[in-house]
Amino acid sequence: MNTADKARAPSKVDKDDVLKEARERLQQSWEADRENREEAATDLRFLAGDQWPAAARREREIDNRPCLTINRLPQFLRQVTNPIREADLSIKTAPVDSNSDPDVAKIFDGLIKQIQYQSSAQTVYATAAEHQSGCGIGWFQVVTDYVDDSVFDQEIKLEGIQSPLSVYDDPAAVKPDRSDSMWRHITEMVPLATFKVKWPDAATEGLDKPSDGSGSLYWADRDAVRISHYWRKVPVKKTLGLLQDGATVDTTDMDPILKRIAGVTQERVCHTHKVEMYVLSGAEVLEGPHPWPGKYLPQIPVIGSEIPVENGVYRHGVIRFARDPQQLYNFSRTAAAEAIALRPKAPYIATAKQIAKHKDLWDTANTKNRPYMLYDHDPNAPGPPKREPPPEVPVAHINEAQSAAEDMKDTTGIYDASLGAQSNEKSGVAIDRRQVQGDTANYHYGDNLQRSLEYCGRVLIDLIPRIYDNERVVRILGDDEAEEFVPINRVIMGEDGMPVVMNDLSTGRFDVRVTIGRSATTKRLETAQFMTEFVKQLDPPQRAAVMDLVAQNIDAPGAEQIAKRLRNMVDPSLMVDPDDPQAPPPPNPMDDPAVQLEMAEKESKIQETQQKTRKTAAEAEGQEIDNALAVNQAAQGLHPTQQDPMQEKVFDAGMKERDAERSSQHRYEDRQWSVEDQRRQAQQGQE
Which of 152-161, 259-268, 671-680 has the highest mean pLDDT? Predict the structure, then answer.
């Protein structure tokens, strides 16, 4: 939080009350969650490799005995957290009423993505997720700061909280995202020299120390002082007024005359709160109160697994129940190594006469690698010296270590297939099912992170209109990481001549949607693989039209330049979106001179063909007239000899055609009479 904000200077009484309240609440939180905090601290030490009980380690070190630590726990933790590092964690907004502008929602989305990018939010989320999976809970926070030392504009950022055990929360909070917390402490141990430089007038005497034996949380040790950022929600009562146009305004301190002028039609009392923060030590209030512009406490918890028990909640991470198998694994491997190391080397069996002359050679037989060993023949011991069998391997310790390794897999739900090692599964389906089993066993960690990001989104949506409250141009990011600069809160003149605020971030209400998907790099790789296989099914012209898109999704140096060159070779008409109403019309092929010449040649050939067709049709029509004349003569009974020779054959054909036509007509008439007779007979039968 920006500590340069104006803060009300509290009186001495106010400071004493705040300090007393803060100390009591910190002690209350520590006592209520003490067991979980102690177990979480042990979890973190185990992850760091401190896995031997202190007493057992001291005893072994005194006796100069080994304490092997073969730390297998981080691999199980990384199996849960590394997919989160690879994932694309997206917080999006959605309008929830008619007053919410979709364009403003787009600006909110772009601003949130810009805040995440500028804050390296992927690292912030991953650190909190590692604490969540490692010790049961992690934290990160939303902060504000000035954009630059020379301006008043502020911006929002996300920051990680390095130690999850530095946060002491309200034990009365029961919601999974702890949004119902009424107060919270974020503490740190500051070196005494740094404390005196930053607060030179602050007192350092009288602070609670571990040596006091009071059993309460200490505020100082020999060379450090505990500093707390104490956040609290202060109850506030205000009056809301409803205007004639449906808008709501705060009328708590509004003059009655102004209420009538503004057109307030109804009023109601609203019980709400404000958020403020103090910086304090165990002895005094060092800074504050600093007002917080939002209505939420800006710390976001990422919780692992919680089990309600009789006296509270038991909270743990993925490795809590793997600690005992890990200790047993270390002990078994240490015992096996110790047993092997303490056993004597396999000795030689020889007589004194065999090795007497070569004693120096045999004395160093177990320390030097010699190509041969000399000995003297002894009639009482025929043959060379013989070596005894080597000592047996401590099989029991090895078996116990293997059992402990399997117990770690069982307690975490992560097996060999998930860890990348070869297991008993042979088929691809069986391996996939085993991997899915590991993912399913720890799915709730990612789901809890998604719930935390939803709360983070609500904090950001509440904070953005209060921080980005002036007219400025902001940079937003799209889903494809493309940058865009948009103006916000800009006053322009509307069509009716009245001022209108463009992109007013304070209007409307928005909801939060969180998605956890594949990272942009992973999606590009999968897209490139899909496109490479897809284009193999296309014809060469179709393939050439889309190869620039394939090159664009290849994650390799020079791929973008290849895509640009391929894009220049694509027909511009193929680049037009047919669904875009503002897209230019496709080019007319008739505008090409070569096409015009080709069409003219085709038209000329068509006309020539049509002329030949008309000539042939005319000749056929003349012949048809002559044939009709011959048929007419035949119908009049003229003798063929009175015709010209060419029409004699036509005459015979005409006579045959006439006879056939008459015969067909007679047969048709006979059938008609027969049908008519049958109809009359049937009608008479019915009568």
Answer: 152-161
What number is the average pLDDT over the span 579-590? Answer: 62
Which of 553, 495, 548, 499 minimizes the C-alpha distance to 526?
Answer: 553
> How far is the CA of 624 from the CAs of 99, 135, 182, 650, 652, in angstroms?
85, 107, 110, 11, 16
Question: What is the per-residue pLDDT for 643?
Answer: 46
At residue 300, what are phi and psi to the nearest 5 degrees? -115, 120
What pairing do the DSSP bridges indicate for beta strands 490-493 and 499-502? antiparallel
Short-list 460, 134, 82, CA closest to 300 = 460
pLDDT at 343: 62
Q: How far apart are CA 431 and CA 425, in angstroms?
A: 6
Give me the pLDDT at residue 585, please: 64
Query: Residue for token digits 């940058």?
Result: 483
Q: What is the DSSP string of 147-204?
A: SSTT---EEEEEEE-S-GGGEEE-TT--STT-TT-SEEEEEEEEEHHHHHHHSTT---
Residue 112's identity, in one-letter code, is I
Among 412, 415, 308, smallest CA distance to 46 is for 412
> Who's near 510: CB < 8 A, 6+ residues apart?
93, 94, 95, 96, 100, 105, 108, 461
Burial class (CB in 10 A: 0-12, 13-18, 19+), 423: middle
Rounded alpha-carbon distances, angstroms, from residue 687 to 513, 539, 681, 683: 87, 77, 10, 6
For 483-498, the pLDDT digits (tens) are 888 888 887 877 777 7
- What percentage of the chain exceeds 70 in pLDDT? 77
- Residue type, position 187, single letter: T
- Closest by CA to 301, choosing from 432, 207, 184, is 184
pTM to 2 decimal places: 0.69
User: What tokens does 212 get?
Assistant: 């006091």
Question: What is the distance between the alpha carbons of residues 177 and 170, in angstroms, rounded to a whole number?
Answer: 12
| pLDDT top residue among 447 and 210 | 447
Q: What are the pLDDT digits (tens) for 615-630?
A: 777 777 666 666 666 6
Instruction: Report which residue type is found at 36.
Output: N
For tokens 């060999």, what's the residue?
416
Burial grade of 269 (CB within 10 A; 0-12, 13-18, 19 or more):
exposed
Q: What angle do CA 562, 568, 570 make, to 5 degrees?
A: 105
- The CA–CA distances, whole Å, from 203 to 20, 185, 192, 225, 287 equal 16, 20, 11, 11, 14
CB neighbours of residue 550 within 10 Å: 20
Whole-angstrom distance, CA of residue 106 vs CA of residue 110: 6
**C-alpha 417: how far from chain center:** 23
Residue 590: per-residue pLDDT: 60
Q: 295 with 273: CB under 8 angstroms?
A: yes
CA distances (Å), 450 to each of 88, 366, 457, 510, in order?
A: 12, 62, 10, 18
From CA 175, how far away is CA 278, in angstroms rounded? 25
Question: Which phi and psi angles does 299 have, rounded to 5°?
Answer: -95, 135
Helix 121-135 vs helix 102-118: angle between axes, to the nearest 10 degrees? 70
Taking 60 as the threshold, does the pLDDT of residue 169 lie above it?
Answer: yes
- The Cα–Cα gap between 60 and 337 comes to 14
Among candidates 235, 230, 267, which has minimal Cα distance to 248?
A: 267
Mean pLDDT of 181-204: 92
Please say whether the beta carbons of 56 and 198 come within 8 A: no
Paired residues of 485 in beta bridges: 475
